[in-house]
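Methods — Computational structure assignment.
A single polypeptide chain was analysed. Its primary sequence is given first, followed by the predicted tertiary structure written as structure tokens.
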Amino acid sequence: MRILLAAVITLLFLVGAQAQIPSKEKQVRQAVQLFYDAFNAHGFGHAAEYTTDDWNHINPFGGWARGRKVVLKELREVHATFLKGVTDTVEDMNVRFATPNVAVVTVISRMSTYYPPDGVKHENERHIRTFVVVKQNGRWLIMQDQNTTIGP
């Protein structure tokens, strides 16, 4: 009976502890999901709601854009050309907290077919993207992301 009682108390403690974590994690995930929603809608007009002013973006071709204005210029250009109509679907998302105000998010996603400027067809391609998400003024915002192609 004592073992059962101890197990129930431990379970309740763990459930209570887990209930606190998902709220913060959910907010971090929401910031990252807003990025993917904007990607798939090909409209980044609300980027200030989920990115910092000094957002850095490293694309899968090795380009490094620094600052939200520069990143958005690049994203608008590629989404008006070779990424027009392309979707990127999240398959897995992992959140780890480096500090109470900094999270590292790793996302595996799958992109629909596209042809970059070199003309090589990219079909059913998977990507791994790492986001650094920070809490500023009570909101979780993407500060940095790096996207790497990992193949089909």
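Note: The beta strands are 51-58, 64-66, 88-99, 102-111, 125-136, 139-151.
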